[in-house]
Design a protein that fits this description.
The structure is a homodimer. The first copy, chain A, has about 160 residues and is of the alpha+beta class. Helices cover about 25% and strands about 40% of the residues of chain A. The N and C termini of chain A lie far apart (about 50 Å).
């Protein structure tokens, strides 16, 4: 898809390819208590997985670790890549493609950056509405969570 | 990362965020004979998985089906998402992030678009050098290929 950029000085229009924008989200398992969600400070508001935009030159893994730290104060150990979601309507702002990681959180959680507050939710008591497609992502995660908890247990024993 | 765009008419410089660019690649299993690879018409040259850029507003799945058809003439049935690769140096042109799908190919393969020729390779006789990080991707795929072939068999029986 081509998009038009208008020069703010002379009004000249140039065309360039528009691409979907890569993001990451992180499902953080915290100390056997449940999953870390943030209440978003910026639109779209609501509870959501911690996450954000991937920088140019940054791997998805580095972005996931950085975003988790920035929004929750937690250091995370990535347990693996879960799935990549790309529905063009998953983000009301623009077409984003998110790669979701499962991680173990260490440290004391504290909301910061794009998170105005933060909470640990037991999987059976998740908020009924989540921002973006995070309800779908977590529904798919909960189906296979036991496999990830086994992986987490093994990782913790190392 | 911020990048600068220079207006071609007045030379005014505007800054905007630069993002990695999403792509797809498709591991196509073809009629029990092996995997479909293309010889790239455009740089970087060499054998590679069929694939390409994801359009704005297009899901990864739609892009995978479209790119497979454009480059190999095959209709593909996606068996599932394999993994997303994001090493900033995986593509010599720019930072791309590719989501790889495993698919079953139907029809008569014919090189087109970005493919100047095409071949079916038995997994044990892959070219020693592939473009991008496709050697790594296929090495990781071959480790779990039996699981995908079981899935393919079940899908074919439906």
């Amino acid at each position: 898809m081509l998009m038009e950029d208008k020069c703010p000085r002379c009004g000249d229009v140039t065309r360039r390819h528009r691409n979907p924008v890569p993001t990451v989200d992180i499902i953080i398992e915290y100390q056997g208590l449940g999953l870390v969600l943030i209440d978003r400070a910026n639109p779209p508001h609501g509870w959501a997985l911690p996450g954000g935009f991937v920088d140019y030159g940054e791997s998805l893994e580095a972005a996931a670790i950085r975003e988790a730290r920035e929004e929750t104060g937690l250091t995370v150990t990535l347990l693996g890549q879960f799935h990549t979601y790309s529905d063009p309507h998953r983000d009301p702002r623009q077409h984003t493609i998110t790669t979701v990681y499962v991680a173990q959180g260490h440290g004391q959680p504290q909301a910061a950056d794009d998170a105005r507050r933060l909470a640990i939710f037991a999987p059976e008591q998740l908020p009924p509405v989540l921002a973006f497609d995070h309800r779908l992502i977590l529904a798919e995660y909960l189906k296979v969570r036991p496999k990830w908890l086994t992986k987490l247990k093994k990782s913790s024993e190392l």
